[in-house]
Amino acid sequence: MIDLEALIAEADKLVAEADIEFVPVTLAGRQVGVRFAPMSGADWRDLVLKQPPRPEIVQDINLGYNVDAVVAAYPNVALVDGDDVDDMMRPGKDGSESMWPAVWKRLTATGRKDVATAMWAAHERTPERLVADAGKASPAERKKKHS
Length: 147
Description:
Mean pLDDT: 89
Number of domains: 1
Low-confidence stretches: none
Oligomer: single chain
């Protein structure tokens, strides 16, 4: 019998211990960084499903979601300037609100592309590589190759 509780705990641990992503960008002519932690596969899926693809944008159609809207809606993004880290949360009408969407709109085109690529890779490329690598090492996979 598979120890599902242990597998679930290990999956939660991997998400909790995932490397924080850091992307150098330019904002208002200054070199700063955008920092975010990868989220669980379920949370990523929930986020992208809330942002339908724009019909005229090939990248959106290929990925199945509005890339710019997903990045703008990403939670818990921080801005790094040297040793200063700003969570970009400010008082708002309904409690606190993130300034990340406003910052996202003002990044250079290269910075926007780099952040979007890093978020995509952290959730879709890196996990697929981990699955592929795990499959290469799994006993079931080795049996298939030797049969």
